[in-house]
Structures are given as structure tokens and as C-alpha cells.
Write a structure and sequence with these properties.
This protein has about 325 residues and is α/β, with parallel strands linked by helices. Helices cover about 30% and strands about 25% of the residues. It is built from ten helices and twelve strands. The longest helix has 17 residues. The radius of gyration is 19 Å and the shape is globular. This is Alpha/beta hydrolase fold-3 domain-containing protein. It comes from Anisodus acutangulus. Belongs to the 'GDXG' lipolytic enzyme family.
Length: about 325
């Protein structure tokens, strides 16, 4: 065996992972794991549940510190980021930031454990996410057995949320939920889009002045979803003709959050503007955090700007 050839890197997807000629996949970040538990800093308790034993799809459920008798709470279904190829519901960065989110917003949260590229090529992540949504919705139909969902959730106040790739997934889940031939089984009240991962072949906004980062993001998607459409594949560019119409987004309210220094910023702004100018009947808002980069809140969830952002999420979800 030629071990030198086997150690040759055939895909270097900086800064996420490397793929070797022998098939070995080396993830460079997002591999740490924090167990579900009680968090003394926030009073939030979490637990892991197996959603589908056949595919090993799981979710992590969070609940805030609650009095013995309490009214039912809004439900947030959260899709983590990581360019579809890294991270998990047990990633300590996500676990810590979601503890803060749940405590500040006073919600029940289901963090979705979809499978990753390249072992599980797209669109598997979308199918996994839909299966978790259907599992959650079964509780609204009195067909689920998860106690926290049955006893604590107000199914008249259900939100999709996600950052980066997770925001991308949220968008497609909101569209799929509106298709009459596969009713979800619960109404979606709103969607929280944090630094959404959308892209395109032709540069816009900040991308024009930053060809180095533009090239890096180009490479991510071509690895994640190799196709003859490149970065104009409808899964990454919701503004191309083949993509589902934005008016199909099946919720009443959307909050788009972007960061000033993020190379993906202008795609998030374009999503907001396109949604507002479409035939969609809901209400959209956008907020921009100055001086920060992509998903900054994940890396420092207790910073002043991260807490300000979480307050915006809490206000959006609890708005009557």
C-alpha cells in the first residue's frame, strides 16, 4: 500500500475539514461534545431524545427554570449552523448559547440533530430536519410521547430558528410546511433567520470588495453540494428562477439578523428585501449588529452585543 498517496488531501475545506485520498474525513472544528444536563448559570435543563432509531436522528430539548404551575410556553425548533458539514446538537458553543437563549426568551427549544456532509450528501440534512419537525408536530396531534412537549408547549406559538446553514434549513422547512400534499400538523408562527447561509455566483455588496472570502465561500458550497448549477443551485441561492417562490414561506413573521462584518451579510439583506417585495403576506423585520462577524453570538454568548441580540429574539418570539 502506498501510504503517502493515502495521506494525500483531496479536499481542503478551510476552516472546516479535510478529506484524504483514502476516504478519511478530518474535521478541524465543531467536534467537541457537551452533554445535556442542568446548567446552573441559566437554570436551563436539557436532555437528548432519539427521534428516529433507523437513521439515528436525535434532538436536544431545552426547558427554562419554571415554577411548579406555569402557563404553556412558545416552542422554538432550532437548526444549528456549520456549513452543513460540522457541528452537532452537542457542540459546546451551541449548547452554551442555546442555554442563554432559552433562559432569556423563556421558551421550550428543540435543537435538531441532522446528519452531515460529506458522509450524508445533501439533501439528507433537509430530510432529517423535516422528520424532526414531523416528530414535534405529532405532539400537537396528541400522537407524541415526549413529556416536555406535551405538557409545556403552546402549539399556537411555534417558531423555526437557525443560524448560517441552519437558517437556510429553516427557510426550506417553512416552504415545505406550506405544501398541501404533506401537511406538517402544526402552524408556524414565525421564523428567526440568523446570519443566513445563502450565496450566488455573481458577487454583491461586501463580496465585491472581498474576493478572498468570496472565493472561500464559493469553495464551501461546491464541496457541500457539487452540481452543475454551482453557487446558483436553488438550495443555496433562493433568488434564482428554479428556487421556490418566497411567497410560499409559510409563517406570519420573519426576523432576519445580519452582522456588519459578515461576508454573508448582503445575502441576508437581499433575502429580507426580496421577501418584503414578494407576494408573501407576512411581516418581516431586519436587524444588523455593527462591528461583528458571522454568528459572533455563538463564540461569546454572554457578551453585551450577543445578549442584545438574544433580547431581540425574545421580543420577536413573545410579541403578541
Amino acid at each position: 500500500m502506498n501510504t503517502t498517496n493515502n495521506l494525500e488531501i483531496i479536499h481542503d475545506v478551510f476552516p472546516y475539514l479535510q478529506v484524504y485520498k483514502n476516504g478519511t474525513i478530518k474535521r478541524l472544528v465543531g467536534t467537541e461534545f457537551a452533554p445535556a444536563t442542568y446548567d446552573p448559570q441559566t437554570g436551563v435543563t436539557s436532555k437528548d431524545v432519539l427521534v428516529n432509531p433507523k437513521t439515528n436522528i436525535s434532538a436536544r430539548i431545552y426547558k427554562p427554570n419554571l415554577p411548579t404551575k406555569t402557563k404553556k410556553l412558545p416552542l422554538v425548533i432550532y437548526f444549528h449552523g456549520g456549513a452543513f458539514c460540522i457541528s452537532s446538537v452537542g457542540d459546546p458553543k451551541y449548547h452554551d448559547s442555546l442555554n442563554v437563549f432559552v433562559s432569556k426568551a423563556n421558551v421550550i427549544l428543540v435543537s435538531v440533530g441532522y446528519r452531515l456532509v460529506p458522509e450524508h450528501p445533501l439533501p439528507i440534512a433537509y430530510g432529517d430536519s423535516w422528520s424532526v419537525l414531523k416528530w414535534v408536530a405529532a405532539h400537537n396531534l396528541k400522537q407524541g410521547c415526549e413529556v416536555w412537549l406535551n405538557e409545556l408547549v403552546d402549539f399556537d406559538s411555534v417558531f423555526l430558528a437557525g443560524d448560517s446553514a441552519g437558517a437556510n434549513i429553516s427557510h426550506f422547512m417553512a416552504i415545505r410546511a406550506g405544501k398541501s400534499d404533506e401537511a406538517l400538523g402544526m402552524k408556524l408562527s414565525g421564523m428567526l433567520m440568523i446570519s443566513p447561509y445563502f450565496w450566488g455566483e455573481e458577487p454583491i455588496g461586501i463580496e465585491i470588495q472581498d474576493p478572498v472570502r468570496k472565493s472561500m465561500v464559493d469553495k464551501w458550497w461546491k464541496f457541500v453540494c457539487p452540481s452543475n448549477k454551482g453557487n446558483n443551485d436553488p438550495l443555496i441561492n433562493p433568488f434564482v428562477d428554479e428556487a421556490p417562490s418566497l411567497e410560499q414561506v409559510n409563517c406570519d413573521r420573519v426576523l432576519v439578523c445580519v452582522a456588519e462584518m459578515d461576508i454573508l451579510r448582503d445575502r441576508g439583506i437581499l433575502y429580507y428585501e426580496s421577501l418584503v417585495n414578494s407576494q408573501w403576506k407576512g411581516n418581516a423585520e431586519i436587524i444588523e449588529t455593527k462591528g461583528e462577524d458571522h454568528v459572533f453570538h455563538i463564540f461569546n454568548p454572554t457578551s453585551e452585543k450577543a445578549l442584545d441580540l438574544v433580547k431581540c429574539w425574545a421580543d420577536f418570539i413573545n410579541k403578541k
